[in-house]
Design the sequence.
């Protein structure tokens, strides 16, 4: 559980009473906030800043002393994002309930932040985390899924993934159709198991170079055996999918030739 999640749960009474009633003291709060990856700001009921961590000060572009002089009421009249933040703050003061929402940045509207505001020490506090890149990744993933569905609808393109051990980890409907395997059947076998015998050694070498990073892409031909009889010849483009530098799969797109 992150520090901000603990604070929010505590404010709602969703942690054990002996934990929720435990008073860290200001030194403890300061230490905890200093080690949070989120920005942390504590305000009194008049919306005057009483404390903040280094992440929050850096995000504001101010040192801690200058940040403590900010007047949220005045800023709210000048900045729409601050006005949104202040509106949520007043709700928390009125209802004594924690709230969580997303908002654009105060200084940079192109940035997206996840914000949590909750009752804290007679006033309120809020935490925020910059999530622009995560939001963009989610949007890119949705675009990819849409394009992927469109490719599948063409019904003439084979798309599949092979894990670092050489086993199928995904196969689209078209590949399953031309090979005569169900998806669950394919995901129990290796790519080289359905390769023409004469091509298996070369295919294994190709996969190994992609997994190890010796090469970052491969264009070639796979001769794949059908379940019943015969073979299909695919012109393929292969590339590794990496996470934290490690190959987690090899993506292959192929067309019959």
Sequence:
């Amino acid at each position: 559980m992150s520090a901000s999640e603990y604070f929010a749960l505590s404010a709602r009474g969703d942690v054990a009473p002996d934990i929720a009633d435990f008073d860290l003291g200001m030194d403890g709060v300061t230490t905890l906030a200093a080690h949070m990856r989120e920005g942390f700001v504590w305000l009194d009921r008049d919306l005057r800043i009483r404390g903040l961590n280094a992440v929050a000060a850096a995000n504001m572009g101010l040192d801690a002393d200058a940040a403590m002089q900010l007047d949220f009421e005045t800023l709210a009249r000048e900045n729409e994002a601050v006005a949104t933040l202040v509106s949520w703050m007043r709700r928390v003061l009125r209802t004594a309930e924690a709230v969580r929402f997303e908002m654009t940045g105060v200084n940079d509207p192109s940035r997206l932040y996840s914000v949590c505001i909750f009752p804290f020490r007679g006033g309120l506090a809020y935490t925020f985390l910059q999530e622009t890149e995560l939001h963009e990744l989610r949007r890119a993933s949705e675009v990819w899924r849409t394009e992927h569905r469109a490719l599948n609808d063409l019904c003439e393109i084979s798309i599949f993934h092979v894990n670092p051990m050489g086993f199928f980890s995904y196969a689209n409907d078209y590949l399953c159709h031309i090979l005569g395997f169900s998806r669950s059947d394919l995901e129990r076998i290796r790519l080289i198991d359905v390769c023409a015998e004469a091509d298996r050694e070369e295919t294994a070498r190709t996969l190994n170079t992609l997994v190890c990073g010796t090469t970052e892409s491969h264009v070639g031909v796979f001769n794949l055996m059908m379940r019943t009889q015969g073979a299909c010849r695919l012109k393929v483009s292969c590339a590794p999918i990496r996470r934290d530098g490690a190959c987690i799969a090899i993506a292959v797109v192929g067309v019959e030739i």
